[in-house]
Amino acid sequence: MPRPRQHRAEVTRQAILDGAAVAFDRSGFGGTSLSDVVKHAGVTKGALYFHFPSKEALARTLMAEQLRVADLVPTGPETPSPGITGPEASSRGTTGADTTSPNPTGPGLQTVIDLTHHMAHGLRSDTRIRAGIRLVIEFGSFTDPDPSPYEGWIDICIKCLTPAQDRGDLHRSLDVHALSTYLVGAFTGIQVTSHVRTGRTDLHDRVVDLWNLTLPAIVPADRLAQFDPAGSPECRAART
Amino acid sequence: MPRPRQHRAEVTRQAILDGAAVAFDRSGFGGTSLSDVVKHAGVTKGALYFHFPSKEALARTLMAEQLRVADLVPTGPETPSPGITGPEASSRGTTGADTTSPNPTGPGLQTVIDLTHHMAHGLRSDTRIRAGIRLVIEFGSFTDPDPSPYEGWIDICIKCLTPAQDRGDLHRSLDVHALSTYLVGAFTGIQVTSHVRTGRTDLHDRVVDLWNLTLPAIVPADRLAQFDPAGSPECRAART
User: Fold this and answer.
1) How confident is the model at residue A10 (pLDDT cuts 50, 70, 90)?
2) What confidence score (pLDDT) does residue A72 get?
3) Which of A190, A192, A212 has the CB atom closest to B141's CB atom?
4) Which of B134, B188, B212 sits opposite A192 (nearest CB)?
5) pLDDT at A1 (0 to 100)
6) Which residues of chain A neighbour B186 with C-beta distances below 8 Å?
7) What is the SS3 string spanning B48-78?
8) b/e string for B175-189 if b means 16 or more Cβ within 10 A?
9) Is B182 close to A151, i.e. CB distance below 8 A?
């Protein structure tokens, strides 16, 4: 059990990240000052500097954090993730007491479909996910290009799609690395477009389109009906 | 024929846009000052203000200009585009004397495939296209959200894909608007990802993946062989 002082420090650290997320989500990296973060976080500048040496350190933390959406689904058969009830819980770095029942067949194609919907839900409902993605696209793609968030998602897809291909859910001829790279790129653009055009209100529908328009090229015809482009029942339940 | 003074003004205007493109491509909207533009353009601040009242006006002009890549292919059967030999020519607002031979079957699915490769080529070879896209994604998606560049590309796709569906090249059940929205979103993300991961060296390969992974869902099986995911012979010739 953490000692009270450690606990207080963690509460402050989370408040700073919450405040930074509000500021970055609203104004981007260039438009956010550390004074904005302090104001939104309700902490002193001293406390801020104790936890994060710079605005860039705050941005890098939020950019890395969005990968934790992957904890929502078991992507590794040997280390089932602890149960997390939603992207808010995930982004706070806290885990619930229950454990998710391990996926009986291990991670696979439906896992990746579910991940895209969990990410879409996180973008719609969680300021920290939203700030992380804005930073990845603005700051991490142009201001100071950093492929690691993209590579992180590509690796997660590969971990799910390689066993899927081994068990025949994906065509043998597919290059799983190229498919994973494609899915990460396409999702990135789909959510930007949905954000600009509809304030992300149509994002789940656009993600369903992504899968409806991709599955026929990658899944043998006699297995197509096994996959739900709108997400598994558990995935759909988690976002309502 | 333009009078000399008009001609000089247009030369200055193009020099300003070239200089602005270098600055925006390098430093983004937030990181670019009008002094940077003046320096890169080799013009006076007075000349700059004569043509563009603000940095935002410069950005909007470059953001609108990337849509002119569509002039490279005949997207409207009734108004065949004049021949343009490459994205540099397109972005300069100049047109050659030759006329492109009209597409015998009118615009269609291969037109859209070719457009994605022309855009990829423009992103790799033309600073003004590159600056326009950086502005669309950074400035036009987050700083000051503006769906019009996305809607512009969606409309161009719809103009090509509606006749394609009418002649049976696309499944009758497809929603052409949703398909067009998907293609614009997916391309947007694919080129961002390619930029961050490889400096866009793999962009044409990633665009080929987009089509290989989408065509089986949208084209009747007996017509698939009619479409080349790498672009038509004319399109491939134009980018070498």
Assistant:
1) very high
2) 76
3) A192
4) B188
5) 55
6) 185-186, 189-190, 210
7) HHHHCCCHHHHHHHHHHHHHHHHHHCCCCCC
8) ebebbbbbbbbbbbb
9) no
pLDDT attached to residue A142: 81
Distances (CA, A) of B229 to A6, A180, A218, B213, B214: 57, 19, 16, 10, 10
What number is the average pLDDT over the span A206-223?
A: 98
Q: Which residues numbered 117-146 in A keep a CB inside 8 Å of some CB on B?
A: 134, 137-138, 140-143, 145-146
Q: Which residues of chain B have pLDDT under 50?
A: 78-102
Question: Are A217 and B218 within 8 A, CB to CB?
Answer: no
Q: Are A38 and A19 in contact (CB under 8 A)?
A: yes
Closest approach of B142 to chain A, Cα-based (Å): 8
Q: A207 and chain B: CB distance < 8 Å anywhere?
A: no
Closest of B165, B161, B145 to residue B220, by C-alpha:
B165
Decide if A189 and B194 are in contact by the 8 Å CB cutoff.
no
Size of interface A-B (CB pairs under 8 A): 135
**pLDDT tens digits for range A76-123:** 654 433 433 334 434 444 333 333 444 556 899 999 999 999 999 999
Give contacts of B146 with chain A, Cβ < 8 Å.
196
- Domains of chain A (ranges, CATH numbers): 4-53 (1.10.10.60), 65-238 (1.10.357)
Q: What is the ipTM of this complex?
A: 0.84
Q: Inspect the interface and report whether the beta carbons of B214 and A214 lie closer than 8 Å.
A: yes
In tens, the pLDDT along B98-120 reads 334 445 568 999 999 999 999 99
Alpha-carbon separation of residue B78 from B87, B104, B105, B159 (angstroms): 23, 12, 12, 12
pLDDT, tens digit, 9 for 90 and up, residues A63-75: 988 888 888 777 6
- CA distance linking residue B96 with residue B168, whole number of Å: 34
